Every structure is written in C-alpha cells, then in structure tokens.
Amino acid sequence: xxxxxxxxxxxxxxxxxxxxxTLTKYQEExxxxxxxxxxEYLSYCVFFPLGTIGPxxxxxxxxxxxxxxxxxxxxxxSWKEVLSNLFLGFFSMGVILGxxxxxxxxxxxxxxxDNFSHL
Length: 119
Description:
Layout: H1 2-17, H2 25-30, H3 38-45, H4 48-53, H5 59-66, H6 79-102, H7 112-115
C-alpha cells in the first residue's frame, strides 16, 4: 500500500510538471518535467526507507537525497563517530563472548547462582 502511495506521488509530480494550472510552492519544487530513467524509477521503488518504514515522499525529494542536493547538501559525516561506534560494537561482542564462557545460561536460573561471586 505504501508503494502505491509513492508511485501515485510520482505520477502526480509528473502531472504537475506538465500542468497549466497555478501550482503551490511545494508543487513547484517537487514537479517532474521529464520521467526518470528505468534505473532511477526502480531505485525509487525499492529504496529501503521508502518501502519498509513507510513515509511517503516525492521522487524529487528522493533524487535530492541521493545526489546530495537541496536540503541534503550538508549532511554531517564523522569518521570519528563511526569508528567509535564500531569499536564499541566489537568491545560489546568481546564482553558478551567472555561472559558467556564464564556463565552458563542455564546456571543463571539455579539457586547456586545466587551464592556465586560475580567479581
């Protein structure tokens, strides 16, 4: 159903691009004068946030996001943040693997676990 709404938005944007009527400011920004290529259309149709999460947005907005134009020109990107999250993920994985070797999952539900020293 979300796909149908997004494809309808694409059709209305194309219709607005060839309309003789007066358009609103938003319609002017989102109008399509020419249809996207088959590759661009299919990428719009299978774009993960578009189909899975479900927000409906116009093709022009999708195109601006993919080509980093308009509002998406200055998206912050920090390698420091990415690497710190990667390190945190590997550290957490190491802690879980280390703790799982020391604690048996079934042992947690036994009465001996209450008297076990966790230090």
